[in-house]
TrEMBL record:
SUPFAM superfamilies membership: FAD/NAD(P)-binding domain (SSF51905), Nitrite and sulphite reductase 4Fe-4S domain-like (SSF56014), Nitrite/Sulfite reductase N-terminal domain-like (SSF55124)
Family of this protein: Belongs to the nitrite and sulfite reductase 4Fe-4S domain family.
Residues engaged in binding [4Fe-4S] cluster: 634, 640, 674, 678
The organism's taxonomic lineage, starting at the top: Bacteria, Bacillati, Bacillota, Bacilli, Bacillales
Protein name as annotated: NAD(P)/FAD-dependent oxidoreductase
Domain NADH-rubredoxin oxidoreductase C-terminal: 316-383
Domain of life: Bacteria
Organism: Alkalicoccus luteus
PANTHER family reported in the protein's UniProt record: NITRITE REDUCTASE (NADH) LARGE SUBUNIT
Amino acid sequence: MEKLVLIGNGMAGIRTLEEIIKRDPDRFEITIFGKEPYPNYNRILLSSVLQGDSSVKDIILNDYDWYEKNGCSLHCGEEAVQVDTEQKVVYGSSGTKAAYDKLIFATGSDPFMLPIDGADKEGVIAFRDINDCEAMIDTSKTHKRAAVIGGGLLGLEAARGLLNLNMEVDVIHLPEFLMERQLDEPAAAMLREELENQGMVFHMNKQTVKIRGEERVSGLLFKDGTSLDTDLVVMAVGIRPNVALAAASGLETDRAILVDDQMRTNVPDVYAVGECVEHRGTVYGLVAPLYEQGSVLADHLAETAESAYEGSLMYTQLKVSGVDVFSAGEFTDGSDTKAIRVHDEFEGVYKKVVVRGGSVIGAVLFGDTSDSPRLLDMIKKQTDISEMDKAAILPSEKREASTESAVVSMAEDETICGCNGVCKGDIVASIQEKELSSLQEVTQHTNAGRSCGGCKPLVSELLELTLGDAFREADQKEPMCGCTTLSHEEVTAEIRDKKLTLVREVMNVLGWSEPEGCSSCRPAINYYINMVNPEEAEDDANSRFINERVHANIQNDGTYSVVPRMYGGVTNPEELRKIADVADKYNVRMVKVTGGQRLDLLGVKKADLPSIWEELGMPSGHAYGKAVRTVKTCVGQDFCRFGTQDSIQLGIDLEKKFQGVPTPHKVKMGVSACPRNCAESGIKDIGIVGLQGAWEMYVGGNGGVDLRQGDLLCTVTSDEDVIHMTAAYMQLYRETAKYLERTSHWLERVGLKWVQEQLVDHEANCAALAERMERTIAQMEEPWEQIVNSGTIKQDYFDVKHVTT
Ligand SMILES: Cc1cc2nc3c(=O)[nH]c(=O)nc-3n(C[C@H](O)[C@H](O)[C@H](O)COP(=O)(O)OP(=O)(O)OC[C@H]3O[C@@H](n4cnc5c(N)ncnc54)[C@H](O)[C@@H]3O)c2cc1C
Ligand SMILES: NC(=O)c1ccc[n+]([C@@H]2O[C@H](COP(=O)([O-])OP(=O)(O)OC[C@H]3O[C@@H](n4cnc5c(N)ncnc54)[C@H](O)[C@@H]3O)[C@@H](O)[C@H]2O)c1
Ligand code: SF4
Ligand code: FES
C-alpha cells in the first residue's frame, strides 16, 4: 500500500481524504498531522457556537471513530515541523517520523494580527479556532465591552456572537463602508443600519494605532487621536496563508503555495489544497473552492479521472440572523458593465445584477436573497441573457414566505448547496435511489448542508417536494444533542411510551453517553417530562436555566429584574402604590414600562427577591420563563371610537387562563379591537384582532430579530371560541415543537395548512388538545408564592440566611 501523509487536519485536508477514500478505500495507508488538539471540526460553524446556536460537540465533522474506521493514523495536537523531500519523510513536534509516497500540505491560514503597539496584551485575540471562541465566551462572563477590529464577514459574525453574549460591541472598520470586498455602498449602508438596530456601534474610517492597557487591554487609540475603552479586542482583519513549513521544505511560494491544475507543487509527489494554496494567482478563503480543489486532487491521487481545477467563482453569504446578504462574482460597476437594480426602501430590499456583454458576471442582494441560486447559476453558466426580459433576470417583488417553494422552479442542474457544489438533480436522485427521508441522511450521502448550513431550508423543501407526506414523519431525526442519537421527537415518544417522569431516569433508560447530560438536553428533557405527564412528572429545578430557577431575569450586572403580572396590561392605584413602596425600600435602580405593558423593577439583588415578592403580593409575570408571558391589549370598545370588541376583557381572560403555562419557548399574545392593531397583534405568537361580531386569530408572528407577520389561522365569533382555539393551538405547539423552537419557526416547519387541518378542520382533535391543555393548567402553581412559603428554596437558590418559616 502506498503511504499518504497529510499535514493539516482541517476542512480542506480531511475533505480531500474523504474523497480519496470514497474513490479507492484501500489505496493508501494514511498518516495525518494536526496541530489543533481536536478531530476535524466545522470551522465555519464557530460563528454559530459563538452566537449560541451550536455547541463545540455539535460541530465535529469527523469524530475519532471516523479516523479509526478509515485506517487513518491521526497525530492530534502534533505539528509537522520538518519535511525532508529527498528522503520523503515528515517529522512531527512530538517525535513522530512519517515516511510518505505522496504528501499533501493543507495547512490553512493564520489570522492576521495588526502589528501595532499593545497587540500582545491579554484580551487581544483573533477568531479562528475553538480556543478563540471559548476565550470570547469566557470573557463575556467577567467583562462587558468588546471591540472588533474589521467589518468584514468574520468581524461582523464575531460581533453578532458577542452581542448574543450580552456584551456591548463596537466595530472598528478601516474603509468607509462595511464588507467592501463583497458589497457596494447602498447594500453596505442597509447592512449597517440593520446591524445598528441589532445593537452594534460602528466606527468607520478608523485606523487603530495602539492597544492601551497594563497587562490586559483597556482601550484602543486611533490615528485621528480619538480613543475607545474596551475589555476585549477581536482582530478580524483578514488571514495569511500558512506557508512557512512549505517554503522551508523547498516548495515554491508567493502569497501561498503555488500549485498547478492538479494541485501539484513544484516538488515531485507533494501536493497542496485549501487556504494555503495559490492557484493561477488566486488564494481562496471560502470552503466551496477548497472542496473543488480536494475533489480534483482525489481524482488525481486515486487515478479515477483526469480532472483539472480551473479556478472558482467566489460568492458569500453572511451568517448573522435577521440579515440576508448575498454577494457573488464581480459586483462593482465598470466602464464595460451595466447593472439591473431594484432598491425598495420600504421593504428593505436591494438587488443589483451586473452584466457584461450578454452575461451576468456578478450580483449583490440584501434583504431578500431568494434569487441567489438562480443568479449564481447564470453567472456560473455564463447564460446568454440578451434576449431575456429584465424581470426574468431580477424579479422586483420580494418573494413572500407563503408562495410556492423556490425549489419547484429550479432546474435540475441548479446548485442547492454552494459550499459543497451539490445540485438539485443530485439531491433528488439520492433521495429516490437511496430512499433518504431526513435532512441528516441527505447530508450524509450528498454533503449538502454539511458546511455553513445555509442551504438546509432548501434541502428540506426538496425533501418535502420529493417525498410529499412521507416527509413530515421522517424529517425529525436530528439528534437532540451530543449526548444521544435520539431526536427530540424520539425522546418525547420514549417518555410517553415508557412513562418516564424524572430527568435522570430519561437519561439512564435511553442510554445517554454523558451521564449528567448537558446544558442543551437537560432543560429540554425537563420540559418534555412535564409536558407529557403534568400530574406525575417531577420538575427538576437544577435542569432549568438560571432565570427559571430563580424566577427572575438575570441582568448584565448580575442583579435581577422583577416583573409582577398585570392581567391584560391593566393595573390600579393599589398595585402601583405597592410597586412604588417596594422600589423605594429596596433601592430598585429603575422602574421601566415594558413592551408587553408591564412594570419592570430593574437592578434587584438576588437575596432581596423573596422579600420583594412577599411585599408585592402580586403573581409572577413569568417574564423569565419559557412560558406564556404577556397578553397585550388595546383599550378597545370601552374607550376607543374604532373599537368593535372588548379587547381588554378578552386579554385578561386569556392571561388568567394561560399564565405561566410552560411552552417550548416564550409565548406572547396581543388582543386588538380593530385592524388598526394597537396591541401589535400581527407580530405576536398569538394575535387576536376584532372585527364587527368576530375575532380573527393570527399565529406565528414574531417581533424579534426574525421579524415575521402572523398568519391567519381562523375567524371565530365568541370570546369562548378564542379561548378554546388558543388552548388547542398552544397544546399542539407544546406537543410537536422542539424545545427552544419559537412558534414562528415551528409554524414555518410544520406549515399553516397542517395546523389548520389539526385544529380548524378536525373538531374532535381540537377538543382533545384543549382538554390536554386543561390537565396542565390544573397543575399550575404560583411560583413566587411557592418560594415565599419555602425556607429551603430561599436558602438553596437565593442565599437568604436566617430564614424562619
Ligand atoms: C469563524 C469563521 C467562519 C467562517 N465562515 C465561513 C462560511 O460561512 N463560508 C465559508 O465558505 N467559509 C467560512 N470560513 C472560512 C473556512 O472556515 C475556511 O476557508 C476553511 O476552514 C479553510 O480550510 P483549510 O483546511 O484550508 O484550513 P484550516 O481549516 O485552517 O485547517 C488547517 C489546519 O492545519 C493545521 N496546521 C497548520 N500547520 C500545521 C502543521 N505544520 N502541522 C500540523 N497541522 C498544521 C491548523 O492548525 C489547522 O487545524 C469561516 C472561517 C471562520 C474562522
Ligand atoms: N460567511 C462567510 O462566508 C465567512 C464568515 C467568516 C469568515 N469567512 C472567511 O474567513 C476569512 C477571514 O475573514 P475576514 O473578515 O477577517 O477577512 P476579510 O479580508 O474578508 O475582511 C477583513 C476586513 O477588515 C478590514 N480591515 C483591514 N485592516 C483593518 C484595520 N486596520 N482596521 C479595521 N479594519 C480593517 C478590511 O477592510 C476588510 O473589510 C476570509 O477568507 C473570509 O472569507 C467567511
Ligand atoms: S386597535 Fe382599534 S380599537 Fe384598539 S385602540 Fe387601536 S384603534 Fe382603537
Ligand atoms: S450552502 Fe453552505 S452547507 Fe450548503
